[in-house]
Amino acid sequence: MSNIVSSVSSRPVRDVAEAAAPPASAPASQGVAEAGGEIETVNISQNAQNIASLFEAAQQAEGVDEVAIKKIKDKLAAGSYNVSTHDLARAIISVLKEMNS
Length: 101
What we know:
This protein is an alpha+beta fold.
């Protein structure tokens, strides 16, 4: 995955890949752009690329229950969303098994 930076802005991080990207000391993919006569480089780790791919696949998946998502977001915002540690562990194991197969 390559990203080209067309301009520099002060916008907040809005993308999962941007939020998960480690420091430039661990480059895996590189995008280069010229902004105002200066060359700028963006390095995106393999983990960030994987997260971005998973995020994109989730966004394109069918059968997303928007009502359930809104309820969870509302509970998160109110600080009242609780998840059973057993359920969380089971979900993590399921995802890891899927990733390794």
